Amino acid sequence: MLGTGALRAHLIEARLAGTIATTREKSLGRYRLFAARDPRALLGLDPERDWPVGELLRLMGQKCGVSADPTHTSGLDVIDPDRTIAELDRFAERLGEAAGRRAPVLIGTGHPHRLLGFYAALADALSSAGCPVLTPAYGARVDIATRFGVRPCTLTYVRGVALMRETGVRGAPGAGGVHTHSPLPVRTALAAVGDAAGPLPGLAIGDHGWVCGAGQLGIEAIGLADTDDPALFVGQAEGRVSVAVPLDDAVPSACYRPLARYVLNRARLSR
Question: Which of 89, 106, 143, 203 has the fewest CB atoms within 10 Å, measured from its CB?
């Protein structure tokens, strides 16, 4: 079993926490967009109140460990690995609770090239524990807005994990996978559940719009978030996101395998 000390060392070595690759400039730019309620930064969340940049900085300092100094405007962001571990422990608690009541779960990612393996390990374990892993709206078309125009995509599932794939692309798992922050995929999936009069998810797991979009619609949601994704941490502060784990969400996919083992062990879901 991976212990806390070994996990902390891995987080720093893999740059999942400690000094990460996300730049201060990128994070501050996203905080400004969020403060202006730009949909690109809201990720499907409708904040209950205004969040000026200064308040966002203070919140992100508390939740992630980034500098709350507004005069610090350049360089690389920093995540406190102890905050990451604390949230991974809470993440594991929610997984264990869902498994204990065999709750239906919905798992989706906007980072298929990086995080698919992490979520697939969770889906396998939860399914083995008796949780229905939902795959609603399989094959549905979802048009994703990008800075280059509307991108036609298809909602698909790989090992129980929802992701968006460029329409018409086939091949290996994750081939044609689209990096997206949009909440439209989870809204499409949940609408399909409602239309089929099936059981709603007892827990949504993921990142970006999958977490904020589900939480906004009243589904318990837990997930991973980088320092340039303030929406998940605001959602947590306002009570619509149960767990937001601060980490770099764009390192090589193999770096997340120890995290999956850690949370599954903590949740008593290891096989």
Answer: 143
CA 104 to chain centre: 18
Domain segments of the chain: what residues?
Answer: 4-266
Distance separating alpha carbons of residues 2 and 261, to the nearest angstrom: 7
* Surface-to-core class of residue 168, CB atoms within 10 Å of its CB (0-12 exposed, 13-18 middle, 19+ buried): exposed
Nearest to 151 by CA among 182, 107, 115: 182
Asked whether the beta carbons of 226 and 201 are under 8 A apart, the reply is no
In sequence order, the 6+-apart residues with CB closer than 8 A to the CB of 46 are 216
b/e for 132-141, b at 16 or more Cβ within 10 A?
bbbbbbeeee
Place of tokens 């997930």: 223
Say if CB 105 and CB 267 are below 8 A apart: no
Q: Report the alpha-carbon distance of residue 209 to residue 40 in Å, rounded.
A: 10
Which residue has tokens 């980088």?
226
Q: Say if residues 207 and 107 touch (Cβ distance below 8 Å).
A: no
Distance CA 48, CA 67 (A): 25
| Secondary structure class of 249 (helix, strand, coil) | coil
For residue range 79-112, list pLDDT tens digits in order. Answer: 999 999 999 999 999 999 999 999 999 999 999 9
- DSSP assigned state of 169: -
Q: Which of 38, 40, 37 is nearest to 49 (CA)?
A: 37
pTM above 0.85, yes or no: yes
